[in-house]
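Extended Data, panel c. Modelled sequence:
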Amino acid sequence: MRIGELARRAGVSVRSLRYYEEQGLLTSERSASGQRHYAEYAVDRVILIQRLYAGGLSSRTIAEVIPCVDSPGADTADDAFERMLVERDRLSAHIDDLLATRDALDELIAMNRRFRATQAIG
């Protein structure tokens, strides 16, 4: 499939797909005229990349873990495993921070409600 179709099916921009290729996260074949052509599995690959980005992983980190998807083996699995554990711990810490921030905001909302209730009465 051509780049525009992949972009449409994966829900990303053509620019994103070019960037993924620059970062070594996605590959394509080139036609004689230089147009990019992607295999069917590229749709799932782009969706995975998007999920990893949404989870806060950098393109460098994704490039470190994605080889275990392409060619699972002892070497790639071991390297990716350590990196994934580090990223999972980082995400867990970030989630904890977000939960603490939400709790603080909930308290401010409660204080504001109490204040507004007293103003409406008086």
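The mean pLDDT is 90. This feature is highlighted in the accompanying rendering.
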